[in-house]
Amino acid sequence: MIRVLLADDEAMVRAGVRAILGSSGVTDVVAEAGDGREAVELARAHRPDVALLDIRMPRMDGLTAAEEIVRTVPGTAVAMLTTFSEGAYVTRALGGGATGFLLKSGDPYELIAGVRAVAAGAAFLSPKVARYVIDEGLGGGRLTREARARARVAVLSPREREVLGLVGAGLSNPEIAARLHLVEGTVKAYVSAVLDRLGVRNRVQAAIVAYEAGLVES
């Protein structure tokens, strides 16, 4: 079971998300918080697999809480759950170490898939968020971004580009290992090398490069 901390200042939203996650049969909401400060405290106390955080909360907003959880509870993956998709929020969330960004208005199956993905160490952006980040959030014209991304991935070996494409498709390390017939430790080493050579902090940022470089099928 994937142990989840759910933080949102609206009780009805928490109830709805809890019901959706409970229907999956693979997640267990072990703690709920009504504000960001409480979310950090509960993350430290329960050490969940995933912290699912709303952005706009009292006392401490979800972005600040996410940064604090990433810093102090390294075994917990962080995903943001929000109705807002402005570039500033997405950029700060990803820069702060979040590996998932989900919309409350999204499909329930998308929510479940996102939680499972980040729990497995993969990155997951709601498709609407991913398109927004690629089209609006990174600046510059599309052709310029594509050319820049292709130049960045050109330094990778063929196998590293293959791994990057699968990271961009949202696959976890075990899934990539199965797809490429490699041991998981080898995949982990490839992923670390790719992040280092691309100069990105996490799998979400690597996935954006993969999309822009045309390594991921639309």
UniProtKB/TrEMBL annotation:
GO terms for biological process: phosphorelay signal transduction system; regulation of DNA-templated transcription. The modification 4-aspartylphosphate is found at D54. GO terms for molecular function: DNA binding. Keywords: DNA-binding, Phosphoprotein, Transcription, Transcription regulation. It holds the Pfam family GerE. Residues 3-119 form the Response regulatory domain. Gene3D superfamilies: 3.40.50.2300. Residues 149-214 form the HTH luxR-type domain. PANTHER family: TRANSCRIPTIONAL REGULATORY PROTEIN NARL-RELATED, TWO-COMPONENT RESPONSE REGULATOR. This is Putative transcriptional regulatory protein YfiK.
